[in-house]
Every structure is written in C-alpha cells, then in structure tokens.
Design brief:
alpha+beta; 4-stranded mixed sheet; 3-stranded antiparallel sheet; globular; CheW-lke_dom; cytoplasm
C-alpha cells in the first residue's frame, strides 16, 4: 500500500520519491490497475513521481484556448488552478503542478529520500 509520500522507485539508478495523488487529495482508497500511471516530474530541480488514476491525453494548448480559473469561493481550494482550457467540445481543468506540490511537501519528500 502506498502512503501519500511514499514509496520510491529506482529510475535509471536514481531513487525517486512517489506521491499518490488520490491519497494526497483525500479522494478515497487508491485502486491500482492497468490504467494507473506514474508521471515523472522535475519541480525546482527535484525529480519526483506523481501516481494518478489515469492519463487520457497529453496536449499543447494555445493561449486563446485558455481562460482564467473561475472564483470558487470557500467551498473549494482553487489555489492550484491556473484556469481552464478548451479543445473542440472538451473542457480541461489546468492545474499548477508547482503550487500543488508545495515547497513544504517537496522538503518532506527530500527528507524521505535521504
């Protein structure tokens, strides 16, 4: 079983801490299946893994496809949202990974990795 801050993996000889986003965001018990994806990130010069339920597409958005994040009030913490994008009929929520993986958590990960 994964905890929000860990395990770690060995990627080409480098130990990389892994954060399970379902646990971090308190979205219930994680389920690991053929759709589970490990995304490797480089944030602030630190390489880490982000475990997510699935990835459907990787795409590039043009500036005219992005609008500012709507004000969500106090019901939802929108600090991590950059805005939303549109591709054809699809609406995408854009997340600021640097803010999501806050410096306090990165420090925690670095402590776990040593």
């Amino acid at each position: 079983m994964f905890s929000a801050t860990g395990p770690s993996i060995n990627l080409r000889g480098i130990i990389i801490p892994v954060i399970d986003m379902r646990i971090k965001l308190k979205l219930g018990t994680p389920v690991y299946d053929q759709f589970t994806v490990l995304i490797i990130l480089n944030i602030g010069g630190r390489v880490m893994g982000m475990l997510v339920d699935s990835v459907s597409d990787v795409t590039t958005l043009m500036p005219d496809q992005v609008t500012a994040a709507p004000e969500m009030g106090t019901a939802f913490n929108s600090d991590y949202l950059v805005g939303h994008g549109t591709i054809d009929e699809r609406m995408l929520i854009l997340v600021d990974i640097d803010k999501l993986m806050s410096s306090g958590e990165i420090g925690l990960i670095e402590n776990l990795a040593t």
